[in-house]
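Weekly puzzle thread! Below is a chain. First person to post its structure in token form gets bragging rights.
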Amino acid sequence: MQHHMILNWTGRISGILITAFFAAFFIGEGVPEILNGKGKELLEFIPFTLLSLTGFIVAWYSPLWGGRLLLAGALLLVGYFIFQQDLIMALIYGLPSGLTGLCFIAAANKELI
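Winning reply:
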């Protein structure tokens, strides 16, 4: 198998895992809090995750542009948590999206491999 295909599938599998994690978090904790009127912080957090989710969906069809969107989403997530003064959460949420985005970019640019 060619190296760019390995990176492409690594990005796809990682993206599925990240998306499943965000979905489980949102369904498990977010929906009940929003229904109880206590989910203000989660509602502020959702737009930052949507850019990463959009990047992942785009990356299935266009790895370069999807990877760029994933990196932008990761930077926004990191910036949001740094603004909230929570460096650990910035790494937990930003690093997986950033690394997945780099996998897609490297897979799209075969000469980088």
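Puzzle host: Confirmed. Bonus trivia for everyone else. Residues 3-112 form one domain.
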